[in-house]
Amino acid sequence: MTMRLSGFHGGIEPDAHKHESSGAPIVPAPLPARLVVPLRQSARAVAECLVAPGQQVLKGERIGAPEGVLGTAVHAPTSGTVIEVAEYPMPHPSGLSTLSVVIEPDGEERWTALHPFDWRARPRNEALAHLRDCGIVGLGGATFPSHVKLGTGTGIEVLILNGAECEPWITCDDRLMRERAADILAGAQILRELIGAGRLVVGIEDNKPEAIEAMHAAAAGLDGGVAVVPVPARYPAGGEKQLIRTLTGIEIPYGRLGGEFGVQCFNVATAHAVYRAMAFGEPMVSRVVTLTGNVDRPGNVEALIGTPIEDLLALAGPRRADTDRVLMGGPMMGFALPSLTVPVLKATNCLIAASPRLFPPAPPEQACIRCGACARACPAELQPFELYWFARSKNFGKAQEYHLFDCIECGCCAYVCPAHIPLVDYYRFAKSEIWARERDKSAADQARERFEFRNWRQEREKEEKAAKLAAKAAETRARLAAEGGEAVAADAPPAAEDPKKALIAAALARAKAQQAAAAPKNTEGLSAGTQAEIDEIERRRRALGLAETADGTAAPDTPARDA
Amino acid sequence: MIHSPYLRKPVSVRQVMFTVLVALLPGIAAYVWQIGAGILVNLAIATVVALAAEAFVLRLRRRPVGLALGDLSAVVTAWLVALCFPLIVPWWVTALGVLTAIVAVKHLYGGLGQNPFNPAMAAYCAMIVAYPALMSQWPSAGQLDFSTQLALILGGSRDVDAITGATALDALRTGLRGGGTDVATLLGQEAFGALGGRGFEWVALGYLIGGLYLLARGVITWHMPVAFTAALAGIAALFWAVHPEQFASPLFHLASGGAMLAAFFIVTDPVSGATTPRGKLIFAAGAGILAWLIRNFGAYPEGVAFAVLLMNLCVPLIDMKTQPKVFGHRGDRS
């Protein structure tokens, strides 16, 4: 099937280094002495621990319950004994720890009872819940929960299967497509039905002819509507937004989801996992990991989640002396592992033993000469050097104006920069500074709101008190009016028997008349708040019998005087 | 390199600058062949002064000297200064020009990447204002042998009228302003060749070849050369079509003076020029039009240098107003 490709701007073509690891079939990794399964497996969610030390677990048994909207279940990758539930370092640049379940395998690999799920017969929401309970997350690296990505099941026209695998060195998806094409497409068909998409398009970089061939062959056996499309091998062709743009011409802006534009994208390995979950009820307990770089026997292994990374790397041969670090993910967007004791995650697609020969240290940073090579390479069509200047001068407002947050941190700009400026680091710095400031600002906003509420509450209490007083005063006034009103109305000299009371009564009458006849000019058109304040003061004065003073300072032509 | 990407393309500022130097060689070769080997002396003087000045200022600024000297940017500036100055200026004018470019125009604004003005053009303008006579004496093709050139460069006594002619642009301008003659008659004079100045038109061809090499290597994009030459030729063609006796042809303008050097090596300076695709077109077209206006109506025979400086002033505005649309924001209001 031929298809007109839209392509995307920029991109780079570094040495692919795929052939090192793509030749050999996927082999299962042997059971390690113990597994450390972090309960944080999907993006921004930690599962609730369901097991205690000493407990026996079966392979595929649930050890973590999904929590929150983005939560997915976590399962025991093999049968054995839980020996510890504790904080262990994560494979993350920070090296921070997260709650993990440590399992000592019994070596028997006994499965728990598995329940295949008939997604055609059962309601859609149950199917999504099944995926969540099988711990299905995106295996492209972001580990976004698939059941969330499937959304409401309406408004999606095209389902894209991402087999581009554009990062150099990584070949796990390539091998999976070569070896399990039919299962991948079966999973994709399930996803297509669940999401309600009409078309299914598989995008594969054209540097993987065997994978394209295998997927073509598998697609031929299916009823139509499946297109296997080779896309030009140009990093980052497999970036979700870039692949969507290449295959459909649709651009998904920053902060928006593909679903809003009628398109959704899943990784091929995710589709494979969906198939296993539906057809066999198998939870996600393993994944294919590429072992490559500075090793004797590069290749792909199917590793249990929780396998220590040093055990896995040992499968590719003894550690070479010049290996100075190990990268997780590709060299463009991956990171150097803080330690090799950390376990394999669902996000662990590739481990690269790095050496100064394979990844020479960057030459010293030089001055930007505004040559614009970065702008020509940027797939987000930004002006990276402008963002660099803004980030450098901490002009974060300008950086945002120039769409800093549209940067996908693919690293193309830093790759091509002749001045060897670590551009992406500047953007990360600017973004984290902006986030920090926003946090500070929202904290300040909260404090201000609390302060304003307190003021409002105090004001209200004051008003309530004043109203009570005013009511009391009115009562007194009514009584007084009943007693001395006659004298005032007749404009007679104050009654002798109680001069003080009479005086007050007269003043009240004048004030009343004044209020009715002529509101003072500078109090017109006041805000409700100010008016309320004035009224309240007036009431207080009346209550205290001070109205006469006010009257005394009033203009001579006040009608009250003549009344 | 602690964070990704862990891969770097094997490129460097030094390589970029080196490519520019290589691209200047055809023009320099044509210069030596047509005008004289004295230009090599000027290039050498300029290079030495530029490197010394760069090292000195970097030391003062407490910056790593070796790294910055090795990037070859000072050499590129030096060569451009030498090439746009007359061949037989005394050595100290070249040295002053280079000092102006490196110390004042480049480092006083913060060094490489920070200067708002094109260093070579600013040096040219400073020197033509300071030494108008010395900066206007151009030997024409084959007029002076190398030893005479060398003697003049080293500060020998100058009987300038006897030994130098005017440039094509200067001759045309003086002739037209004198009145009583037209372009066609003037072009028959000794200073003129088939297209532009005699001999210098070959140099212009050399720059064109070097410029195409820069384009092929991806050091420059097509925007600037195309916009500059199109604008210069376009406005020249417009007036030439109406008054051919008063205005020279577009081809003459392209082949004369610094037009080709400017189109591929001067306006394309990334530091002081516009950076967005649309901005580059506006910047270079503006320089082309201003250059023609100054050539025809200004006080100086060659207007490229002033035109470039004037457009340098507009760069922040041009860049701000021509920011390209970002991925996913094509529908947004700019």
TrEMBL record, chain A:
Residues 12-21 have a biased composition (Basic and acidic residues). Its EC number is 7.-.-.-. Residues 359-388, 398-427 form the 4Fe-4S ferredoxin-type domain. Keywords: 4Fe-4S, Cell inner membrane, Cell membrane, Electron transport, Iron, Iron-sulfur, Membrane, Metal-binding, Repeat, Translocase, Transport. One of its GO terms (biological process) is electron transport chain. Gene3D superfamilies: 3.10.20.600, 3.30.70.20, NADH-ubiquinone oxidoreductase 51kDa subunit. PROSITE patterns: 4FE4S_FER_1, 4FE4S_FER_2. Transmembrane segments: none annotated. Residues 1-25, 515-534, 541-563 are annotated as: Disordered. One of its GO terms (molecular function) is 4 iron, 4 sulfur cluster binding. [4Fe-4S] cluster 1 binds at residues 368, 371, 374, 417. It is a peripheral membrane protein. The keyword Heme does not apply. Its cofactor is [4Fe-4S] cluster. PANTHER family: ION-TRANSLOCATING OXIDOREDUCTASE COMPLEX SUBUNIT C. Part of a membrane-bound complex that couples electron transfer with translocation of ions across the membrane. NCBIfam families: PRK05035.1, rnfC. Belongs to the 4Fe4S bacterial-type ferredoxin family. RnfC subfamily. This is Ion-translocating oxidoreductase complex subunit C.
Automatic annotation (TrEMBL), chain B:
Signal peptide: none annotated. This is Ion-translocating oxidoreductase complex subunit D. Keywords: Cell inner membrane, Cell membrane, Electron transport, Flavoprotein, FMN, Membrane, Phosphoprotein, Translocase, Transmembrane, Transmembrane helix, Transport. It is found in: Cell inner membrane. Its main location: membrane. The gene is rnfD. Its EC number is 7.-.-.-. Belongs to the NqrB/RnfD family. The complex is composed of six subunits: RnfA, RnfB, RnfC, RnfD, RnfE and RnfG. The lineage of its organism: Bacteria, Pseudomonadati, Pseudomonadota, Betaproteobacteria, Rhodocyclales. GO terms for biological process: electron transport chain; transmembrane transport.
